[in-house]
Amino acid sequence: MRDLVRRIDEATPRDRDRAVDALRALAVLGVVCGHWLVTALVADSGTVHGASPLRYMPWLAPVSWLFQTLAVFFLVGGQVGAKGYSSARARGESYGCWLRIRLGRLFRPVAVVTVVWAVAAGAMLASGVDAGTVGALGKLVWSPLWFLLVYAVLTAATPLVARLHPLWPLTVVLYVDLFRLGLGGPASLGWINVAAGWLVPYCLGAAWARGGLNDRRTGWVLLTGGAVATAGLVLFAGYPASMVGVPGGSLSNLDPPTLAAVTFGLAQCGAALLLKGRLRKALARPAVWAAVALLNLSAMTVFLWHQTAMIMVTSTALFLSGPLPGLHTVPDGPGWVLARLAWLPAFALVLLILRSAFGAYEQRRGGRSTVVRSGSPALAPESRRA
Known about the structure:
The chain is mainly alpha-helical. It has one domain (2-385). The chain is 70% helix and 5% strand. The chain has 17 helices and six strands. A two-stranded antiparallel sheet has the order 1-2. A two-stranded antiparallel sheet has the order 3-4. The protein has a two-stranded antiparallel ribbon with strand order 5-6. The protein is globular and about 60 Å long. Residues 366-386 have low confidence and may be disordered.
């Protein structure tokens, strides 16, 4: 292990900003832990259906404040995308070549999970599993993937939006919400916010890549301004307190993104920028950096398979022992929360197994793994080019 840690540290360019990788890792882990904590599969009369503890226990809304970290993911995506495109142009690479490299690692593992789940769904239906149960399981796997398409579109648009001021897409979100929620406009207008809402942190990331956002004052302005604006929207404008969707709720902050979700994202981006210095100091330790680097090499695999890990644990336990607290029961009380916390290590263990089985599809380039070459670790293609 010490030798692996040393080789990873030596393979990392000295000028690499390790804080960017740490923020990406924290964003992915936030989404994974958030889904494991606010998603439940309830076994009822031979069928399984989805449920959320946020519906039965609204006081758990602060959990969504900690684990809804998509804004940080788009912040890092904008920083890496803009910096990588600038470097590609300096090397004389075409836009098409740069985009193909950027999106290749994103969609190869998506293709694998698509095939595996198509086969699994067919096998379950053929064996007599209720169609509603298969649909509930498939929804858990596929519903979190919507943001990958948004991320791909914003990545492709990097040359156009890299210098766009974040206030422009923020203004679009403001007017869309004012029209559809305040003036009774068509709800379909909200889908404009899917692009505009996440363009705000993406543009902040691009500004970071250009050398901006380096003073702590900017971080504090984003953190305090975003937090105050979000609190005002929740307390006085009727926006939900939860930053994730709640089944049965009249309005979701994420489906599509609302102004409250965007201002909350600004607060998260401010906190991320304020953490940069501390993260860089911590990541100067080779062991800490090795853990972050290895997670980043499998970030997409971890994201794509984390719900499958939960489903595998839930299904196996149901088959072997019947309904168990925290896995198959209605998430309607503190007892369920404590039981679910006890199951998290099992989810993580199965996810590690899935990562070992499918991680190579994320790291492969030209049929060959890029994690280790000639006995020494190497960075993934876009990591080297960033």
